[in-house]
Amino acid sequence: MGTLEQVFDLADHDTDVSTEILAGVTTFLTMSYIVVVNPAILSAAISVNGRTTGQTIQMLAVVTIISAAVATLVMALYANRPFAQAPGLGLNAFFAFTVVLGLGVPWQTALAAVVVQGVLFVLLTVVGAREYLIKLFPEPVKFAVGGGIGLFLAIIGLEAMHVVASDPATFLQFNPVFATDPIAIISVLGLFVTFALYAADVPGSILLGIVITTVLSYGASALGYTARNPQVAEGVSLYTPASLTGQTDVVYSAAGYDITPLVGAFIEGLSNVDALGFSLIVFTFFFVDFFDTAGTLTGVSQIAGFLDEDGNLPQMDRPLLADAIGTTVGGIIGTSTVTTYIESSTGVEEGGRTGLTALVVALLFLASLALVPLAAAVPLHASHIALVVVAVLMLRNIVDIDWDDLSHAIPAGLTIFIMPFTYSISYGIAAGIIAYPVVKLAQRERGDIHAGQWVLAAAFVFYFFVRTSGLLAGAL
């Protein structure tokens, strides 16, 4: 214990070993779904000769775990920050459905783009360019990121809990059969129990809430209850029976642990690439991951009290390098872009302040290699009540914004709104960065605008053009 306290400077961060371990377990449980979700998404695009679909899914689960463990270990031992990393949602969907299935790019070439992006990240981080660009973020955007991520977490959590459902007219609605949906009832009960525990200052309240909800879910499943996933079409509620505990039907075998067909597949993908099309794919991966990571680091750091008076994270180059190494390693062994997870906020709320929290997460990922399905033991709705709890707590961050100054209020407000409504951290940051110089110019305060902020705004405009104009498809 004494060694851990010295290695991670626990005393200087006003924490202790037990608190860090608790925070690490909480973060892992909250983000462990990625071990199941990432392979499910990537397997739609990646097929390996001589391997069954089940074996391919298991292989992807193994590389997901390894990439998450490596990146989070670097975060723990080099950066000494309580941030966990894994292949990012959204980026894996872009990899599978847009690049590979939509544009017809071989999955090996898509992996090559991920590796190139990771190498670029490493180089830019080493020379300080990534940290410099993040410091160009306008102050109101930095202070708004936490609140925006909070709303983003709330949407994700409430959806997994079956509290909200889709609607063709309003896009979102309250679950129309909430009272007969076991997942919704158990989730809300678990949520209020967690809030009560947190309000009573019970140590490990978020983790206890997850455990209680999990136990209730397995109990209800044993009694024969099944979940119903609401999908509303034309005003009629449709339901599909599903497992209440979220277990998969994949059969795990020894062959599924042999990941050699995925490791190094990016080398094949580098041959015969179209320079323009490949560059645009790399640009898209690069852009989204850059600003997603920047937003997550800033938002979670705000909760932990890591930011300085200017809204910057001291020694940000260290967690950024961990992210870059994770992406590079992930692409090399066969998975999409690795990024910092907003679920790290759950561990921070439990008191995690150092790399010991991240070390616990990394070790739990490695332990799950022994039995891959172990990571799926916690139902999605149970782990995601933590996101709603943290979402409420993250709204406290908006008090740092100067709402009386429109050059702060407008960029901050857009940052907060756009994140949940577009399901993207980077889009929220983009809205704030583009709005800031425009509002400042309208207020005749041109001197407050850094030249680099105009460059960032222009870069975002170009990014949106690439993503939505069909240029990417045309180039391929």
TrEMBL record:
Q: What is its main location?
A: membrane
Per UniProt, which keywords does this protein have? Answer: Cell membrane, Membrane, Transmembrane, Transmembrane helix, Transport
Q: Where in the cell is it found?
A: Cell membrane
Q: Does the keyword Coiled coil apply?
A: no
Q: Does the keyword DNA damage apply?
A: no
User: Which InterPro entries is this protein grouped with?
Assistant: Azg-like, Azg-like_bact_archaea, NCS2
Q: What is this protein called?
A: NCS2 family permease
Instruction: Give the source species.
Output: Haloarcula onubensis
